[in-house]
Amino acid sequence: MMTTDRPVALVTGASSGIGKETALALVAAGFDVVGTGRDTSRVTPLGGVTFLDLDVASDASVTTAVQQVIKQFGRIDVLVNNAGVGSMGAAEETSVEQAQGVFDTNVFGVMRMVNEVLPHMRAQRRGRIINISSVLGFLPQPYMAVYAASKHAIEGYSESLDHEVRDHGVRALIVEPAYTRTGFEANSAKPDTPLHVYAKQRLTVDRVMADATRDGDDPAIVAKAIVAAATDAKPKLRYTAGPLAGRARILRRVAPARVFDKQIRKMNRLAG
Predict the structure, then answer these.
(1) Which pTM was predicted?
(2) Which CDD domains match (predicted)?
(3) Domains and CATH numbers, the chain
């Protein structure tokens, strides 16, 4: 086993977008960084980042990858659960099987990683688990019900976990990005049982999401929030990433229900 005096961060979904920027930002912050992807043979090397293959939807893959990190570095100080998949379409258009696939990565993938890494963090009496949620972890999003549900699940899981692990020197923290300039919208799964009755409005919301993503935050803004969560002496439970996410959090907290409901419908060009 090789050991290091530098803190070690494990970042899932590090081949592009938020994960890539996070890996680079953590290197700059003084971490040894292990980044993962489902097929890292195609990944452009990043200075200071060691890449491993990992599919968070596979128990065996998760176990193997975490054991490799421990064998090589002797420790894991920060786990960033960034790997995730998108899902577009009305709730009724999305089969249970398709929804299970989303949850297997976005929710159960996080749980697999936590269950594998947490024993090591408890043994060393320190560590931070940073779960990447979304503004859709506390906001509704028409025509993205399954994705929003997965992020709402992460919020509840993470907050509960944080209370459980604090006594062991570990924190579980949440980072909430808003729309970010990544391939999210283009790479999101489309409904597997599309229905004509939703087609027109679905296309409208798809365009809204595409425009919002194109004009969204740079992934480096999210990476900055993640580094803060990893390094703050007294970390917050939740970090909103960027000004839009901060405004959305305030709106959810202070706006009257009727006003909030109307704003959601207006943003998504829904009648009434």
Answers:
(1) 0.96
(2) 17beta-HSD-like_SDR_c (cd05374)
(3) 8-267 (3.40.50.720)
